[in-house]
Amino acid sequence: MTSISLWKRQLTYWKENYDSFQYRKHIITHLQKDMRIDSYCFSIVDPQTLCSLGAVTDEVINQLHGKIIALEQHPNTIDAYHDLWQHNNYFQRLSDTKIEDNYRYQRLLRLSGYTDEIRMCLPCGAENYGYLTLFRTEGYFTNYEAQYLVALQKDIAQHLKDYYYVVPTTQSGVYGNGCLIMNQVLKVTSGNEEGLSFMYYLQQQEGTLHLPKLLQTLYMKCHKEQATISLLTPIKDLGYFKVTATVVATKNTEIIILIQAATNEMITAHLMQAYQLTERESDIAVLLIQGKATKDIASQLSLSPHTVQDYLKQVFKKAQVHSRTELSWKLCGGIP
């Protein structure tokens, strides 16, 4: 097996030279050189909703993905990712459980020829940024292989967080008012030109004709909770988008998906969270973006100018910038 130290150097290199999809693809390709992996699903997720924003999968899992997502929401599933996350169980090996009692295994995995599975959450700090699922059709994953994966968990999670909060170089309004309607069998029944173009673009990014993973998971979560689900996501070469799923009151349980190009305000709030600014630091950053001078910020927030400067030093440090102009540019996502 490749040494962990070499693996970590490779992870850093891939992070610096490839986009999120290619990064995850490289990880899978190199893991397959170190251990037997017959199928896989590697998702980056929205930390607020835990919805997949896109996944690297093999063709077999692509075919099964709708069923996999449906079972994630089933009440009899005891090892769904959201349950693992809530119980701080970030690594689960199927062969460590009572397989005969495992609902997912009996309903899908066994019938699909799988004998073992590894599920790994990818937490960074208090939030989760991805799921790595590996499948085997013969035998079981060994303890050594499990420990090997856990040793890489922290580095991969940090990189997925960095990808999630990437600052786009452009912001496109091409898909700014998209709309899609999906039925209970995960089929898009209608949509406007912008919505369909958005879906086709995601399919192109995933290299598949199947429904994009983002839309699959949004539908399932919205349907299960019978509530509106909304998330902000960066899309490669397009910028940030707000995607919202809402239940339509019909007998066929349809879901309407709305796609909106994110406003500067949405992006700024998103990035301030990424840089872990406190409420007071965020207040000061917003006023700075508005062009307020230090004395004006101090007056508006009932602080001394010296205190404002101290807060700004912390903001600069967290955002890794050295000037007000650079901070304003970065917190607006690089969008004028």
From TrEMBL:
<keyword id="KW-0804">Transcription</keyword>
<dbReference type="InterPro" id="IPR036388">
    <property type="entry name" value="WH-like_DNA-bd_sf"/>
</dbReference>
<dbReference type="GO" id="GO:0006355">
    <property type="term" value="P:regulation of DNA-templated transcription"/>
</dbReference>
<dbReference type="InterPro" id="IPR016032">
    <property type="entry name" value="Sig_transdc_resp-reg_C-effctor"/>
</dbReference>
<protein>
    <recommendedName>
        <fullName>HTH luxR-type domain-containing protein</fullName>
    </recommendedName>
</protein>
<keyword id="KW-0238">DNA-binding</keyword>
<dbReference type="Pfam" id="PF00196">
    <property type="entry name" value="GerE"/>
</dbReference>
<dbReference type="GO" id="GO:0003677">
    <property type="term" value="F:DNA binding"/>
</dbReference>
<feature type="domain" description="HTH luxR-type">
    <location>
        <begin position="270"/>
        <end position="335"/>
    </location>
</feature>
<dbReference type="InterPro" id="IPR000792">
    <property type="entry name" value="Tscrpt_reg_LuxR_C"/>
</dbReference>
<keyword id="KW-0805">Transcription regulation</keyword>
